[in-house]
Amino acid sequence: MISSTGRVMPLIKVYSTGKKKVSEMELNEGIFNAEIKDYLLHDVIRMQLAKRRAGTASTMNRSAVRGGGRKPYRQKGTGRSRAGSIRSPLWKGGGVIFGPTPRDFGFDIPKKMRKQALRIALSMRVGEGKLLVLNQFQLKEIKTKSFLEVLSRFGMKKALIVIGQENFNLEQSARNVPGVKVLRVEGLNVYDILHHENLILVKEVVDKIQERLAS
Fold this sequence. Notes:
The protein is α/β, with parallel strands linked by helices. It has helices at residues 29-32, 38-52, 111-127, 144-153, 168-174, 190-195, 203-213, and strands at residues 11-15, 21-26, 131-134, 159-163, 180-184, 199-202. Helices cover 33% and strands 13% of the residues. α4 crosses α5 (168-174).
């Protein structure tokens, strides 16, 4: 289909978990066919990883070390240096000079840039032919074998699976599979898209993504 700008709207096939074509759906050109800008992806991923850093490394400076309330020995006549406290960084067991303290490594990037980076990541998966849309992804029971059979039908071993709402059987079946992650659409992010080899979207998720990134 041709959009109002005169360009062809991307089409993608929708499959069942049995690998049967169910239908086709149009993809928003501005979201799934965006211009690739590597620097934008780099900035957003760096921001995400920085926010994940714990920042809990900590050492004690001389004021936090216990003891040393009095001068260890007299000022002169001992032949030793003029020490004022056993908490000095020069002493074994003393405080640490300029050691790490708890801190927040996170920083922010404008919302428009984060949205555009997400569009670019989605467009990359479409361009690489690594985006799969399923009409639904329901499992009758919690069974990893059944889950892996679905991936095998599509020739996949590693994938990010994005769902629209709670899917207990699927989430539990996939939780111990290496290279696989099940994510709710609200948490969709650039790092997880690019970190996983394939991207699987449930059909209802595509509409939610397009609504979220349209503006």
